Every structure is written in structure tokens, then in C-alpha cells.
UniProtKB/TrEMBL annotation:
Top-level division of the source organism's lineage: Eukaryota
Xref: InterPro entries: ORC2, RecA-like_ORC2, WHD_ORC2
DNA-binding keyword on record: no
The protein's name in its UniProt record: Origin recognition complex subunit 2
Single GO MF annotation: DNA replication origin binding
Gene Ontology cellular-component terms listed: nuclear origin of replication recognition complex
Domain Origin recognition complex subunit 2 RecA-like: 5-164
Family designation: Belongs to the ORC2 family.
Keywords, comma-separated and alphabetical: DNA replication, Nucleus
One Pfam family it belongs to: WHD_ORC2
Function of the molecule: Component of the origin recognition complex (ORC) that binds origins of replication. DNA-binding is ATP-dependent. ORC is required to assemble the pre-replication complex necessary to initiate DNA replication.
Subunit structure, interactors included: Component of the origin recognition complex (ORC).
Cell compartments where the protein resides: Nucleus
Amino acid sequence: HPQERQFLADYLKDQYPQWLFEVNAGFNLCFYGYGSKKELLEDFVQEMCLDGPTVVVYGYAASASIKEVLAGLMDLPRKVPKMTRPWKISRISHLTGRSRRIPRLYLLVHNLDGPGLSSPQAQEALLTLASIPNISLLASVDHINAGLLLNPGPFSTSSFLFHDSTTFVPYITEQSAHASLILRLTTAGNGATMVNKHSAQLVLASLTDNARDLFRMLGQACIDSAPFSSNTLKRPEGTSVERGITYEELFSRCRAAFIVNSEATFKSILGEFRDHDLLTETRGSDGSDVLSIPLTTMDLEELCGLEGAV
């Protein structure tokens, strides 16, 4: 209904002076409601927030991360050192000190509840930024359970005001970015179904410690046996080496490491992987069953090598 949507757009545009008043009073703003708020918020900062630069963060993008945000704010190379807790404001002293180069900065975050920004560490860093007097955080949330995904404690004490900004505008841009997070979307060069790293992390977070240990052992076996590029699943022509590990060998290793105590438990965990497309099974050249994970070697190295990633 174009007329109704235009009525909502006009109504929200009339709220611009009120939103600016709240920002100037020291509040951070969070916008919720059905419909894309990307054009609305970008129009607001372009028309009303004219006393300082605006940094726009596309939280709905699969590649969005708090490191990218901090790298830009700290004027550092893209490789940002590992953050430690608590995250300290002094790391961006050029924004907070008396001799700060930027007297006022607007941080516009589309989809604060996006996959790369909803972790406790990312929230902590963003809320620390929001607590700086000369930084105003303007954020949108769209997940139906955003209130559960975000930590309510810090948000209730960080001078946030919440506005219903229902627009009913289609999520065209956001959906195109989220497509890369759909579990079955990507296909490898050899036709195998792939998952992406983020989807795998979500699945593994819901499994037991033993299941994650088994995944790590299987992933390491895939890395060790991979005779091809780290960013593809495609095996070079003329290569006969199988990527993965045989069923019997993996069971033997898991039993020796006390990850499983019986073959029934082993099969049950493999069934969980299979149900979530985290396991592929092929017939080896000697007739044995070869197990593998449909992730690129690069993603497996990150998942199996980062502390707490799996």
C-alpha cells in the first residue's frame, strides 16, 4: 500500500527535530519496528546531523565485525590487535582527549543485532563508544528477538532512547547481504553443499563439548589432508588424495582421546553433524568411508585454531 507507506515516511520525517533534540541532549537512539530503516536513518543524518562526520556500519553484512569499526575509529591498519577485557576508551584517545581532532562524531549502525555485532564483546565495545560524550550512537534493530540477543543490562544504563520506526519498506539490501548466511546457499566447485563459518559456529554453539571436540578433531584431519588451496573445496586435477579421514580412524582417535566411549555415541554425534550439513561422506579409493566437513580449509583453520571459536 504505497499511500500508507508514504504516510509513515512523512510521519517519521516529522520526528527528525525531536530525534536531533534527544541526540543533542546526550542520548543514544535505537530504532525498531517492521521494515527497513536504512534509507530513513541515512536521510536523518544527512539532513540533521551536520556538525560532525558520520561513520556508517552495515551490521547486516556477513563481513561486519567490531574490529572493522574500531580499525576505522583508531586510524590503525585493518589488522587490529586482539581486544582484551575490559575494552578501554584510551585506545581511541584521539576521539576523547582534550586535543581530540573530531569534536563530534555520529556512529550509525544498521542492524545492531546483526551476526557480527551481537556478541558480548562487540556489544561491550559499541556501548563503550556510546558512553563517550562526543560520540552519538544511532542504531537500528530488526530481529524479532533483538531484546534477547542484546544484553539488556548495559543497554538500560547507556542513555538509550527507543523509537518505533515501522516503515514497511522491503528489506531488499539487508536480504541480499544475509543471503550469504543461509546454510545451503553456497556450492563448492565440485558440486558439494557448503556451509559458511558463521553458520557452523551457530550450530556448534548448540552442541555438547564432546561434539565440538569431535568436530575439531575431524576439522584438523581435513586440514592435514587437504592438498589444495585454502579457500576452495575443489581438488586439483590429477590429485587422488582424499580430503578427510576414514570412519574407523576417526572413531579410534576419538576413543583414544576420551571424546566418546562407544560407537553408539560416536554415531549419534555424527548424526547431529549430518542433520546440520556439517558432514560429508564419500567412498575412498580403497572402499572405506571417508568423512569430511564441507567448509573451506581457510574457514576450518580459523574455526579449529581460534580459542573458543568451536
